Amino acid sequence: MKIGIVGLGAIGSLWAAKCHQIHHDVIGFTRSKTLAPLVIQLDQFQPFTLTINDYQALQDCQLLLVTVKSTQVTEAIEPLHAFLNSSTPIVFLHNGMGAVDALDSKWHQYPLLLATTTQAAFKPTQGQVNHTGLGQTFIGPSPLSSPFKKSDINDLIIALNTILPSVEWRNDIHTALWNKLAINSVINPLTAIHQCRNGKLANDQFKKQISILIKEISQVLNAENIAISHQSVVDNVYRVIESTAQNFSSMHQDIAHHRTTEIDFITGYLIRTAQKHGLNTPHHQALMEKIKAIS
Ligand code: PAF
After folding, report:
1. CB distance 188 to 251 below 8 Å
2. pLDDT band for position 33 (cuts 50, 70, 90)
3. Could you give phi then psi for residue 44, rounded to 5 degrees?
4. Exposure of 253 by Cβ count < 10 A (0-12 exposed, 13-18 middle, 19+ buried)?
5. Whose CA is nearest to atom 9 of ligand 1?
6. Cβ of 185 less than 6 Å from ligand 1
7. What is the rounded CA–CA span in Å between residue 147 and residue 164?
8. Cα of 86 to ligand 1 centre, how many Å?
9. Distance CA 126, CA 148 (A)
10. CA-proximal residue: ligand 1, atom 5 (nearest)
11. Which residue of 3, 16, 57, 195 sits 20 to 30 Å from the alpha carbon of 221, by its own alpha carbon?
């Protein structure tokens, strides 16, 4: 397959390397409009050279995988529109929700797919990427998408599952996205505010606050008719705190490196959804204000 990958952060670089390993024709797209190829090394494998920003090649791409942060989605894909065939499926893979809803309506003619992953990757240097944790990727339809053929999507899921397993189709991707958003809305702001690794949130000092944050999330999930129980949110949050105990969350890293955070697409999305149902989420609101103050 010819596959375009937009954004070469840790997850984009991981997918690019995995595509290359099984001989797909992969092209990277970056913010810098450089045409100089990038050399990427995944773990201890042989480094490989990745073609960058070849816009003409976009028209033959059978898939565009967009791995930039929620805050960069619009800016990253806008320049590609003039070159991209409207039958090319676009898969969006990022933390948070609402970025695809914010796209201009000209994108609605494409097969738009939303994804969430528990694969973990880390870039120790510009040209290196480490696959630090095996996980799952769920993909499903965006409600804004043009209709697509089920058989095309089946083929795509099979291909993606061969590149970086496991990849599974979810008709109700919304539930998987909310599941991830619930986890991110607790771990990311707290670790950024307290400047700590994820694992520290298991300490007693955070118990009460996490419990209140989860109560507010559960009310929103109920109002939205999302089938995730209060206990599942508790279990998922603490499972991720434990399994990523040594990690600094993405929001912690964004604050530390003076980058824009995804707070508007994580906590902001939660608060906007709560407001739609006339619900208050004062503890999430307080976290969002603190993050904005230190950003
Ligand atoms: O954003 C992140 O850092 C990650 O999604 C997670 C799961 C919180 C682990 O650090």
Report:
1. yes
2. confident
3. -100, 10
4. middle
5. 249
6. no
7. 26
8. 32
9. 37
10. 184
11. 195
The atom of ligand 1 lying closest to the CA of 184 is 8
Instruction: Point out the ligand 1 atom lying closest to the alpha carbon of residue 253.
Output: 3
pLDDT digits (tens, 9 = 90+) for 97-120: 999 999 999 999 999 999 999 999
Return the ligand 1 atom nearest residue 187 CA.
8
Nearest to 207 by CA among 234, 244, 181: 234
Provide the β-strand partners of residue 240: none
CB atoms within 10 A of CB 150: 9
Name which residue sits closest to atom 6 of ligand 1, judged by CA: 249
Token readout for 59 is: 């028209």
User: Can you give the pLDDT at residue 147?
Assistant: 85
C-alpha 289 to ligand 1 mean position (Å): 20
The reply to whether ligand 1 has any atom less than 6 angstroms from the CB of 198 is yes
* Domains of the chain in sequence order: 2-171 (3.40.50.720), 174-294 (1.10.1040.10)
Q: Which residues of 44-69 are buried (b: 16+ CB within 10 A; e: fewer)?
A: eeeebebebbebeebeebbbbbbbbb
- The label of the residue with tokens 């590149």 reads 163
Q: State the burial class of residue 99 (Cβ atoms within 10 Å of its Cβ: 0-12, 13-18, 19+).
A: buried
